[in-house]
Amino acid sequence: MYHTLIIVGNLGKDPEMRYTPSGQAVTSFSVATSRQYTSGNGEQVKETIWFRVSTWGKTAEVCNQYLKKGSKVLIEGRLTPDKATGGPRIWTKQDGSAGSSFEVTAQTVRFLSSRGEGGDSVPMSGGGGMDMAELPPEDDIPF
After folding, report:
1. What was the pLDDT predicted at 131?
2. Cα–Cα–Cα angle for 87, 137, 31, nearest 5°?
3. What is the pLDDT of residue 53?
4. What pLDDT shows up at residue 133?
5. 101-111: buried (b, 16+ CB within 10 Å) or exposed (e) per residue?
6. CB neighbours (10 Å) of residue 53?
7. Which pLDDT value is given to residue 115?
8. HSE of 11 in the Cβ direction (CA atoms, 13 Å)?
9. What span, in angstroms and rounded, lies between the C-alpha atoms of 62 and 24?
10. From the first residue on, what is the mean pLDDT of each consecutive set of 10 residues in the chain (143 residues)?
11. N or C terminus: fewer CB in 10 A for the chain?
């Protein structure tokens, strides 16, 4: 059995890189995806889903070097369930409501921002045309 997840969204904050005891690079960053639609009663609804992405090896080093908060990316990877729940990671927001994020291990990361968008040094390596996810205040980002 096999699954692949494709996500297009924006980084919620700058990536964080660390190294395993064996010296392998690991970079983690959050990606927000959003959509807006009109409900059955005519109300405009905004929906944002957060993904926590982990990259490894050379990809981790490149992501750490070039991605910045707000960068637009396309991620191809697999879901990694929370060991405690078997599903998404759950937390309580500052306002007391529940929030969740999905953990993803990336196989491919494509940079969709051109230079100057979402950071000063993000290289162009894909097409544009994606709507930017609306990022919440930094206090509401779950990680």
Report:
1. 39
2. 40
3. 97
4. 42
5. bbbbebeebeb
6. 26
7. 66
8. 28
9. 13
10. 92 97 97 94 93 96 95 95 85 87 93 68 36 47 51
11. N
Residue for token digits 């996810």? 133
Handedness of CA 109, 112, 135, 27 (dihedral sign): positive
User: 8 exposed, middle or buried (CB, 10 Å; 0-12, 13-18, 19+)?
Assistant: middle
**Domain ranges within the chain, ordered by starting residue:** 5-132
pLDDT at residue 127, as a whole number: 35
Residue 122 is predicted with a pLDDT of 37
Superfamily of domain 5-132: Nucleic acid-binding proteins (2.40.50.140)
